[in-house]
Design a protein that fits this description.
Length: 243
């Protein structure tokens, strides 16, 4: 869990509430550090002065899974998992590399749930740059491949690690992504406005940190979940699917 600006806590009354689960699973993901994440892993995740090791190959296969903008999975699924994330957030990286693949294979690919990405670029300028490229990739329905690739190459916070060269290299490895169009769209006023709107809406909702996860069942109001590992994610999703 990567804390956002302290001012966000003043807006906590606006946050979606945590639903009372039958299994009573309300657990923290982050700074308090749950047992599922070792102290060694946490120390590595929270080390802002040293970039984590690059993971060269994708950790999940997203081919043949439908995408539409920020949505991954079949539209109309009963349950949506909403993720508020910042590409510089170490906890977001941990989730994407270690939990996300299992959820994709077990829930998204079979059509049980879909996922929605919501950028929350509060950490710094690299966060906003990354979000502009993600939103641009979303216009080609490749947002999810690019966000996964950026986490695998995450650099030192606000060091300028989101470079054109890095984006071009990673984008060129994503099938179906037009790199020249990606850069044109990322520089557009429309994408800049969309990035501003995503930050503003996260702040207005009182989202206090990244990653933050919400579940939406049908058209019901989304509710927040606090989970630390894949087992707890499964329990939360199964509860929503069965509720």
């Amino acid at each position: 869990m990567y804390p956002a600006r302290w001012a966000h806590f003043a807006a906590m009354a606006m946050r979606p509430t945590v639903r009372g689960w039958r299994r009573n699973l309300v657990l923290a993901f982050g700074v308090g550090v749950v047992a599922a994440i070792t102290l060694t892993a946490v120390a590595q995740l929270l080390n802002k002065k040293k970039a984590p090791d690059v993971v060269q190959n994708p950790v999940v296969n997203l081919s043949s899974i439908p995408q539409q903008g920020a949505i991954l999975g079949e539209r109309g699924a009963k349950v949506t998992l909403i993720e508020y994330a910042d590409q510089q957030c170490p906890g977001c990286r941990f989730y994407t590399l270690n939990i996300f693949p299992a959820l994709v294979n077990e829930y998204v690919r079979p059509g049980k749930i879909d996922m929605r990405y919501h950028g929350f670029p509060f950490i710094g300028s690299d966060s906003r740059t990354a979000l502009r490229f993600l939103l641009a990739a979303g216009l080609q329905n490749r947002l999810w491949q690019l966000q996964e690739a950026l986490y695998r190459h995450q650099g030192v916070e606000n060091s300028g690690w989101i470079t054109d060269d890095l984006i071009r290299r990673l984008a060129a490895q994503i099938s179906g992504l037009d790199v020249n169009r990606l850069f044109t769209d990322a520089a557009s006023a429309a994408i800049s406005r969309s990035a501003d709107e995503q930050l503003a809406s996260a702040e207005a909702a009182g989202i206090p940190e990244t990653p933050t996860f919400l579940i939406q069942v049908g058209k019901a109001k989304p509710y927040s979940i606090r989970v630390s590992d894949v087992t707890q994610f499964r329990a939360a999703l199964d509860d929503a699917l069965n509720g």
